[in-house]
Amino acid sequence: MPELPEVETIRYQLEKVLVGKTIKDVQVIYGRKINLPATKFIAKIRGAKFRAVRRRAKILILDLSRGQSLLVHLKMTGRLLYVFRDISPSKHTHVIFTLSDGHKLFWEDVRKFGYIKAMSTKGLSDFFRKQRYGPEPLEKSFSFEIFKQCLRKSPRKKVKPLLMEQTCLAGIGNIYADESLWYAGVQPIRRAGSLGTKELRKLYNSLRKILLEAIKYRGTSADSYLDVYGRAGEFVPRLRAYGKEGTKCAQGDGGIIKKIRLGGRGAHFCPKHQR
Length: 275
Hints:
Elements: H1 4-18, E1 23-28, H2 38-45, E2 50-56, E3 59-64, E4 68-73, E5 78-83, E6 93-99, E7 104-109, E8 115-120, H3 124-131, H4 144-152, H5 159-164, H6 174-184, H7 197-216, E9 258-262, E10 265-269
Antiparallel strand pairs: 1-6, 2-3, 3-4, 4-8, 5-7, 6-7, 9-10
Helix pairs in contact: 1-7, 6-7
């Protein structure tokens, strides 16, 4: 699933190519993952202009004129692709937005887990309040004290699944939880309450550092993620734990990266330097 760096990459790219352009037409090919009947969905947004592109957690928010917004959750295999007018959609393209500059925006999703919701911009606050998302790790307001408070609230929970709880931290998933814990030298199976203040501080700094670096390289294409231009992210060669099971630890400590099952997901770590 695209995580914060991937969704933020898409947000930034869409902001550059969409804002100020008008939705000239909409074609719904597969309508079961939009929140309205196709005719109502099209009528609601056709002719609207893109005002802004935002992100909350792993959800993209495309603000339109007329007081409307589109919420897009990519889930496991979703993509938003900005394409030239002569590019044909794939068999996994579910909605096509034709733009005023002649380009198109394809929403495709192989596994059909994602969604698009057309709703009033004013209604977004209620929607996100119900989602109960935690703080954004890259916001200036996200202090070490806020991070520490989040982990201290659940001392019995294991630290990696806790980092991935969206009510604790917004946007963190499997990849960046593994990477942050590797850099912090903390094993994913540790109970949150067992981490001392110095360890928490190191984990806080590692998390923010990794997220910013991943955004710099347009995210991690460890699976099906592509940016809006159809390009793979370039962070994979910089991964130190995720997907590295059986390889020598890059820390140079002689450890071998191990993979275990934790909370129904894989967890990758070095048993030598991660304590």
